Amino acid sequence: MRITTAGRAVRMAAVAAGAVLVTGCGSETAPSADASTAVTSPAAFGQKTVRADLDAALEAAGLPEGKTEMGYPAADRLTGQRSVAERQKLAALAERLSPCVVSWKSSEPRRRLDLVLSGLEARGWKKGEPYKEVPMTGSSTYFIATYKKQGWTLGVRHISTEARDRSQVMVTEDTCFAQVTNEERDLVEAW
Questions:
Q1: DSSP 3-state assignment of 1?
Q2: Does 50 score more than 60 pLDDT?
């Protein structure tokens, strides 16, 4: 299987941005100052809030709400030419990443994705790096964008070909990104 640089970058960003131990990552509650008690308080911005932002932007764009997913979408990618040990490591990594990830996929045209992005901006998501739109073969294009909000990074990609359109949004918690080990990066690169 040939992996393109763009595909590898998107896959690495998704994995790297989500990697952290389950404890505390992406939760909607934060431990109280007195750790000896089990009292928790609402987190300012967590996985459920991120999902609500994305769902609201989808609804504002006229797209079906509730198509977002919480958790790392990796279960279907654990097959292939992998040893049992590698598949187990990937499964464990995907499980660790799950509390730190919200995602959405669509086959809507690019103009609908632009409406979703406008909806996210209206909810306080700030553009990260400038948009990149790269021509591919024929009239096909590859679009990539990044947004940030309160410790989360939203990566967007859209591939438009003559035959069809595909959009993918993956939102990851930034503290998770800092926790990915070199071994995990290598494992994902070989994915």
A1: coil
A2: yes
Whole-prediction pTM: 0.73
- Residue range 22-41, pLDDT digits in tens: 233 544 443 333 333 333 33
Could you read off the pLDDT of 73-90 as tens digits, one per residue? 655 555 567 788 888 888
Q: Can you tell me the distance from the alpha carbon of 104 to that of 91, in angstroms, rounded to the nearest whole number?
A: 20
Residue 4 burial class via C-beta count within 10 angstroms: exposed 0-12, middle 13-18, buried 19 and up: exposed
Task: Give CA–CA dist 47/66, Å, rounded.
Answer: 14
Q: How far is CA 140 from the centre of its chain?
A: 23
By the 8 A CB rule, do 51 and 68 touch?
Answer: yes
127 φ/ψ angles, rounded to the nearest 5 degrees: -60, 135
Nearest to 117 by CA among 58, 165, 30, 45: 58
Helix (H) or strand (E) holding 40: strand 40-42
Of the candidates 72, 43, 93, the one whose C-alpha atom is nearest the C-alpha of residue 172 is: 72
**Phi, psi (deg, nearest 5) at residue 67:** -90, 0
**And the tokens for 77?**
């990618």
Give me the pLDDT at residue 90, please.
84
